[in-house]
Hints:
Oligomer: single chain
Amino acid sequence: VQLQASGGGLVQPGGSLRLSCAASGFTVDYYSIGWFRQAPGKGREAVSCIGSEGGSTYYADSVKGRFAISKDNAQNSVTLQMNNLKPEDTALYFCQYRTIWGRGTLVTVSS
């Protein structure tokens, strides 16, 4: 079982990025998958989560209305669409399934 996050990069404030979490060894549609982030010098924070079969979603207050989580069953992946990015969104982003954590992808929001 593995997870691999991708899609990070450098973007200006107000810009958008689309993160992808590719899964192997299990079917994402059947399980809850979460996105977390860790900013420099800070603890890990839950950003968003999507339930089995996409039945429910959770967003941290800090990203509500700007981020959207979804599942791509054809690609067996989970996507985090991030819009109107702010400098405080700068962090290493991880996806998580039960006790499995993927390698993070770095998001930097800066002008």
